[in-house]
Amino acid sequence: MSKWFMSGLIAVACLFGVYLLATALPDKEEVADNGPAFVVPELAVDAETSEQIYQALCISCHGDQLQGGAGPELAHIGSAMTKEQLYKTIKEGRRGMPAFEKRLTEDELLTITTWLASHE
């Protein structure tokens, strides 16, 4: 008797779930973040520091002349991506690129971002 009761209860729960999926669930909506968007501040390009960071962390994938290799070429990355996109990519990583959030300070992130953005 309890087998039939449990089977019936499971069947009713499944049917109710299908009903909810088909009719009652609202459409997903993107939640708008009304907070201020991050903007990379305008900084003077510090080529010496940026090149040191590049040689230490980026050269193995992006090449010694920004020509690319395992990673994409960066010689004209400033015209392909905004500073904010570059900053986010360097900080959080993307596709095969590791995140450098824990390996670079905020100042170093901003320095390398500004330098790369100047390569148009």
From TrEMBL:
Keywords: Electron transport, Heme, Iron, Metal-binding, Transport. The keyword Transport applies. Gene3D superfamilies: Cytochrome c-like domain. The keyword Electron transport applies. Residues 45-120 form the Cytochrome c domain. InterPro entries: Cyt_c-like_dom (IPR009056), Cyt_c-like_dom_sf (IPR036909), Cytochrome_c550/c551-like (IPR051811). GO terms for molecular function: electron transfer activity; heme binding; metal ion binding. It comes from the Bacteria. Pfam families: Cytochrome_CBB3 (PF13442). This is Cytochrome c550.
